[in-house]
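Section 5: illustrative case.
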């Protein structure tokens, strides 16, 4: 990935009509933008992203700013499109798989102290989507898109301090859920029935509240 200062020049080139520069901006920003939209609109994320990029390409010449500003602007455009879609459909995003399914995808060693690292994975995106919306958006904008609290606050219409608090609380909830997944024990029983099928039973993840937190959470405060 290009350095931020290099991407500043790419933004300017794209505004001047350089198609290769615009493709680079798209390849760099699209993955994180898509994850953010999945939290907002679930399976409609790719359609909403396509609509957002059409608007971005159309209005690019009116944008004023550097690469960091461009990231915030594209997130704003995408969020507006997502909110329009949700209002039209009058529904919240739905995932075809349960949250427990995604917890099963997390390896035992991926515990609370790696919560920030996990937010870039598809499994973690599903977990983030289950958080209260204000926390989910704050986590995605701060930890996944990498925006500062002030920029994220402008996108959400909130103060920077409120965004920091929401992101911190969301990451704490994620940490607890990952610790709960990690507490899942080995299969109980190791026999087979008359049909030759295993009678082993997997223990259910513990869903209580833990008092431990991850040191890495302080990075988003």
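Designed sequence:
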């Amino acid at each position: 990935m290009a350095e931020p200062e290099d991407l500043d020049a790419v933004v300017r080139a794209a505004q001047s009509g350089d198609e290769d520069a615009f493709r680079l901006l798209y390849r760099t920003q699209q993955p994180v933008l898509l994850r953010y939209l999945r939290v907002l609109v679930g399976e409609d994320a790719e359609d909403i992203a396509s609509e957002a990029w059409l608007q971005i390409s159309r209005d690019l010449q009116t944008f004023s700013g550097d690469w960091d500003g461009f990231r915030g602007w594209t997130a704003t455009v995408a969020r507006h499109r997502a909110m329009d879609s949700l209002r039209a459909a009058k529904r919240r995003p739905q995932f075809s798989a349960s949250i427990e399914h995604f917890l099963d995808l997390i390896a035992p060693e991926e515990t609370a102290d790696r919560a920030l690292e996990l937010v870039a994975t598809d499994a973690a995106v599903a977990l983030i989507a289950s958080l209260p919306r204000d926390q989910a958006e704050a986590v995605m904008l701060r930890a996944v898109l990498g925006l500062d609290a002030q920029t994220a606050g402008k996108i959400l219409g909130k103060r920077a301090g409120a965004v920091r608090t929401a992101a911190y609380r969301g990451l704490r909830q994620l940490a607890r859920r990952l610790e709960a997944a990690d507490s899942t024990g080995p299969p109980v029983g190791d026999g087979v029935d008359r049909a030759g099928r295993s009678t082993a039973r997997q223990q259910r993840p513990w869903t209580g509240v833990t008092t431990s937190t991850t040191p890495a959470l302080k990075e988003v405060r």
